[in-house]
Amino acid sequence: MVDRADQSVGGAIFSTSYTIGGGLGTALSSLVVTGRQNAGASLLDSLKAAFGFTAAMAWFGTSHKAMIRLRADGSRLGSVHWIETCGYRQR
User: Which of 3, 7, 14, 24 has its CA 20 to 30 A from that of 50?
Assistant: First the structure.
C-alpha cells in the first residue's frame, strides 16, 4: 500500500497509530467501567460492557481496514465513495 520510497514514513505512521490506539482503547474501556460502576452496576457487569465496547471497536477497525484494502486492490464496494473523499487514493 506504500511506495518503496515512502516505507519509512508508512512504518512510522503505523507505529504511531498502534501506540495511540492502544492508549485510547485502554482509556475508553476504563471510562466505560467507571461510568457503569458509578451508575450502580456490579464490577462484572461493568467489565462485560467494557469488553463489548472493545470488541465493537476492534470489529470497526478491522472492517475499516478491509474496506480500504479492498479499494486499494482495485475491487469495488458500493459504499466506499467516502474513502475517495477522505483522500485515500492509490498512487
Answer: 14
Which pLDDT tens digit goes with each residue over 32-57? Answer: 999 999 999 999 999 999 999 999 99
Q: Count how many domains the chain has.
A: 1
Asked if residue 90 is part of any domain, the answer here is no
- Specify the pTM: 0.61
Q: How far is CA 45 from CA 24, 41, 66, in A?
A: 21, 6, 32
**Which residues span the domain enclosing 44?**
4-85
Q: For residue 16, is it within any domain?
A: yes
The cell numbers describing 21, all together, are: 490506539
SS (H, E, C) 28-81: HHHHHHHHHHHCCCCHHHHHHHHHHHHHHHHHHHHHHHHHHHHHHCCCCCCCCH
- What does the CA dihedral 73, 63, 61, 55 come to, rounded to 10 degrees? -150
